[in-house]
């Protein structure tokens, strides 16, 4: 997946606001895997929603801490972030 320059700029702007550089942020995530998993899960959901929108699929996001993440064609879906050989894909 390619990151748009405007999104990368937004990310860097946020890092400046919290006064941390990208290397320190990377280290923070490596030392706090529970936070990294949450960020990675959210990023996967954003990617999934964009892919569905590009394909003109009607999708409803279900908010909150629920076992159902999306509704597509009246079917419920729970999104899971992919893992390969016990490492993050």
TrEMBL record:
This is Uncharacterized protein. It comes from Candidatus Nomurabacteria bacterium GW2011_GWA1_36_15.
């Amino acid at each position: 997946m390619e990151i748009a320059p405007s999104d990368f700029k937004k990310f860097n702007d946020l890092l400046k606001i919290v006064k941390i550089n990208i290397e320190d942020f990377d280290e923070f995530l490596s030392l706090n895997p529970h936070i990294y998993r949450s960020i990675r899960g959210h990023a996967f959901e954003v990617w999934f929603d964009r892919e569905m929108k590009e394909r003109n699929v009607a999708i409803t996001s279900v908010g909150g801490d629920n076992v159902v993440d999306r509704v597509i064609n009246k079917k419920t879906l729970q999104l899971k972030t992919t893992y390969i050989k016990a490492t993050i894909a």
